[in-house]
Automatic annotation (TrEMBL):
It comes from Spirosoma taeanense. Residues 98-135 are annotated as: Disordered. Residues 112-135 have a biased composition (Basic and acidic residues). InterPro entries: DUF4385. It holds the Pfam family DUF4385. This is DUF4385 domain-containing protein. It comes from the Bacteria.
Length: 166
């Protein structure tokens, strides 16, 4: 278990773990932590996650938000949180591509001892080149992300979850 019980636990065997069957193992973590690990939610949501154009982003974010509402109706907090994370990731990835055509934020590979950490870690940031199409895709995802994040029932369930499981 991580030292901070609130932190996302990257040490679990996510390839063989179904968190719908063992929900007590799920930790919210910060931001998008674990978004591409937690099953079966990753497999349910990822096929709908796209942001190439504003039209695609709108369709994708609306579908994922509907999944958020469906999970909410079923009382599935992990599903709600994972849908929220995918909406957040739609915003952050579209924003990165809006700023950097290749999607690469920094020059050079990530040093082995820095993988999985955020920030440049000594690498020079590449110059920005604003892409208005990706910026609009990011704006669309951000709106849906905020709608999910600020949902009163989601906020209540998140607080309850963190009090119960850390």
């Amino acid at each position: 278990m991580p030292a901070n019980n609130r932190a996302f636990n990257y040490d679990l065997d996510y390839k063989n773990l179904n968190l719908r069957e063992q929900p007590e193992l799920y930790r919210v973590g910060k931001g998008e932590m674990g978004v591409l690990l937690v099953q079966p939610y990753k497999s349910e949501i990822l096929p709908h996650w796209r942001f190439k154009t504003p039209e695609i982003a709108r369709e994708s974010s609306e579908k994922i938000f509907q999944m958020f509402l469906d999970y909410k109706q079923k009382g599935d907090f992990i599903g709600m949180d994972m849908a929220r994370k995918f909406l957040q990731m739609g915003y952050t990835r579209a924003r990165r591509y809006a700023n950097h055509k290749t999607g690469q934020k920094y020059d050079g590979p990530v040093p082995d001892d820095q993988k999985g950490r955020s920030g440049a870690h000594g690498r020079e940031q590449l110059p920005r080149d604003e892409d208005p199409v990706k910026a609009e895709s990011a704006r669309i995802f951000y709106g849906k992300y905020l709608e999910a994040r600020e949902d009163p029932e989601y906020r209540k369930q998140r607080k309850d979850w963190q009090e119960k499981y850390g």
